[in-house]
Every structure is written in structure tokens, then in C-alpha cells.
Amino acid sequence: MIRRAMRFTKMHGIGNDYVYVNGFTEKVADPADVARKVSDRHFGIGSDGLILILPSDKADVRMRMFNIDGSEGEMCGNGIRCVAKYAYDHGLSKSNPMRIETGRGVLTLDLKTAGGKVESVTVNMGTPIFEPEKIPFDPSRAKATGNPRVYRYALEGEEMEVIPISTGNPHSVSFVDDVEKLDLNRIGPLAERHPAFPKRVNAHWAQVISPRELRMRTWERGSGITWACGTGASAVCVAGVITGRSERKVLIHLPGGDLNIEWRESDNNIYKTGPATEVFSGEWNG
User: What would the mean pLDDT of 33-45 be, rounded to a whole number?
Assistant: First the structure.
């Protein structure tokens, strides 16, 4: 029997690129294996992972995201914007606001459209999670500081301050004077697998430009260096607020572009606004 090629669409949110598959029409038997293959930038399509857009019995659509190594993540802040754009532009749902089911629960997205297409999306990311058991984070593997939400631990003998937060995925945020001077290829893998994070962690380093403007770089668990991380940018905003470094509404510069993040005091929810871009579509025979 000849196997039919898998139809896909390549999309990105400020450079955080994934291969998207319409699960309403396509069947992916082993998404972890497919994620590893399509993500390869030499022998595959090239991406930070695979995202499936699926039917949902509790929202307009459902998303599942898989990293380069095949591991499944709970949520992707840039990816969910692209899911909303795909669903709206391709007629899977014309809801606006749109509700998308994720591993973190159902999130609500407001779509800015022009000419019948989505240009940018504001995502209600929900409330930040600080409870160690829910992140998950093991405080016994780190040193306490004067701030109950800030810890210290060493990576290869170099001690660093970390703020553990979950915004749908486990994150660690560290503030530095200059993010461009970081040797991310060296420090990233160590941070991802630090024993304080039993399920590994998305590690971020942030630089304060002003109380309303930050710059960040990211090492994502299962994917390595990525150009952007939406849940991570949300965590950076929260970390800036709780350490007195930033205001609740900030512009964050990532290698792939900018995101506007607001941690609203009125409802304690984080709101993330940014673009979503469709690059090309094709068929995968791998």
C-alpha cells in the first residue's frame, strides 16, 4: 500500500517556527517520531518542533506541541498564536475571540484581522504559577534568598540567581547585564537539566533596558536555542515585576522580534500580543 504524503504548513511567531499539521484532515500516528524528523534543518523541513491542530470537545480547536527531541510540551506561546491564525484563515473556526485547548487548559485569544486574515493575536496566558510542586521545582536543590520567589544555584561552579515560574511550562528566569555576552550553547543545556527541575526547564536570561523594556535569550527544553518563546517572555515579565526590575506592561525584545506583555493587576492574568506568520505549505514523504 502506498502511504499518502502528510500535508503541512510552516509557520512562525517572531522566528519561533513549527511545522503545523491540520488534524481535522491529516492523521499522525506517531507525532513524537514525526517531530524529530521534520524538525531536522538539514534532512527535514526545519523547525523548532511539530504542532498538531485538532478537533476539541471543549474549545474551538485543540493544539498539541512536540519539541525537536520528540518530547511533548504543555503549551507554546508563539505556537498558539499561529494555531489561531491557521484555524481562522483556513476556516476551521471563525470565532473571535477564539478558544484553544492546550496542555495547560483552554486559553482565550483575541484576533486582529485585516482582509480576512489574522495579523496579530493577543493571548490570555492565565495566571502565573509559583507553587514549587506545580511548576515543578524542588527548592531543596537550590538556596533560598531574601525574596521567597527567588533562588540561587550553581552551574559548573558559577552561582546564578533564578526565578522559577510556570506560565504553562516550567521556566527559570535569570537577570544579567548583557544577554549578548552569554555562551548559551554552554550554559543552556546545564540550566535545562538542573536537578531542581525534575521535568527539565525552559531557561531564560533577561536584560533590563528600562522598566518598560527588556531583552531576553532562551534555551528551550527539548529544542535548544530558539529565536523566541512566548510563555518564556511571559515568565520574564512576571520575574521583572516580582523583583522590582520592571513594570507590569513591557516590550520584550527577542532574537526573532518583539512581544508586548502585560501582567494585569486587575485579574492577575498575563496578556501576550504578537504576530503570527504563515511561510509555506507542502507535503512530507518522510
Answer: 97
